[in-house]
Design a protein that fits this description.
ATP synthesis; proton-transporting ATP synthase activity, rotational mechanism; globular; disordered N terminus; mainly alpha; single chain; ATP synthase subunit a; 2 strands; two-stranded antiparallel ribbon; about 300 residues
Length: about 300
């Protein structure tokens, strides 16, 4: 479900003052579809976990069922593909602004993540995967602060889990290809450890190397996006309540919640970018560990 932003609040307020009854009813119906916190019961409604499980919009009760979050994911991927196509379709020696922006993003991943951790040869080999993960996470994270979308495509476990499994598969592929026959043995039975300690070391290595990594990748991204959305909804829903429902001096609290909502929106932009960077960075780190000569 969507968090109510300041712009939609003022649209509803103006409609209540000036619109005829029929137009007012139509407007409120439309806003309630876009902003589920618009209610007339005079009570404050905070965010709930149900927002991450919206009803189906297209193809209900079929394998192709789509809700609002799935639609947002398609929008994020479409915008990402459009920007990269527009920025790279006519490359110039003196780049346009869009081309410069795309090149800066690609260089960030190539230089600071792939080549820095994996070297030029292996960095080039795994660059398409790391770049795809970074920009897919980034664009889906940013939908959490875009008006009328207002929820991250990564705030439901499907996308974080799939990306974590892809990163995990790349880790296994890199290790097995580089060290066939020795990758699992050296991972579970590290050289130089006294054999008697393998009773303790091997289960720890198995859990930390082959179980914990995809779980932590998934939960780190998912929880950051869930908490960020709930806080933004809380601030802007409280703003609506104080401005339009609360009595007397309590309306002044709306100024504070609106300010906090604006500041936290900027913070959420930073978190969205940082989480994309961390996810791509950890993917490269795991691949680096798989390629290490100790295996």
């Amino acid at each position: 479900m969507l968090a109510r932003g300041p712009a939609s609040i003022f649209v509803v307020a103006r409609a209540e003052l000036h619109a005829p009854n029929q137009e007012k009813a139509l407007l409120e119906t439309a806003v309630n579809l876009l902003v589920p916190f618009a209610s007339d019961d005079g009570e404050f409604h905070g965010p709930t976990i149900n927002e991450f499980f919206p009803p189906a919009i297209f193809f209900p009760d079929t394998p192709f069922e789509m809700n609002r979050i799935i639609l947002i994911r398609f929008i994020a991927v479409a915008v990402m593909m459009l920007l990269f196509w527009a920025g790279t379709r006519r490359m110039k020696i003196v780049p346009t602004r869009l081309q410069s922006l795309v090149e800066m993003g690609l260089d960030l991943v190539r230089v600071n993540i792939a080549e820095d951790l994996l070297g030029k040869k292996d960095g080039k080999r795994f660059l398409p995967l790391i770049t795809t993960i970074f920009f897919m996470v980034l664009f889906m994270n940013l939908t959490g602060v875009i008006p009328f979308l207002n929820i991250a495509g990564t705030s439901v476990i499907g996308v974080p889990l799939v990306l974590a499994l892809v990163a995990y598969a790349a880790f296994l592929y890199a290790g097995i290809k580089k060290h066939p026959g020795k990758f699992f043995r050296n991972s579970l039975f590290p050289p130089g450890v006294p054999p008697v300690l393998y009773i303790i070391v091997t289960p720890i290595e198995f859990v930390s190397t082959f179980l914990i990594r995809p779980v932590t990748l998934t939960l780190r991204l998912l929880m950051n996006m869930v908490v960020g959305h709930l806080l933004l909804v809380l601030f802007f829903a409280a703003t609506q309540f104080f401005f339009f429902t609360a009595d007397g001096g309590f309306k002044l609290f709306g100024v504070g919640t609106l300010a906090f909502g604006f500041v936290f929106t900027l913070f959420e932009l930073l978190v969205a970018t940082l989480q994309a960077y961390v996810f791509a960075l950890l993917t490269a780190v795991y691949i680096q560990l798989a390629l290490a000569d100790e295996h």
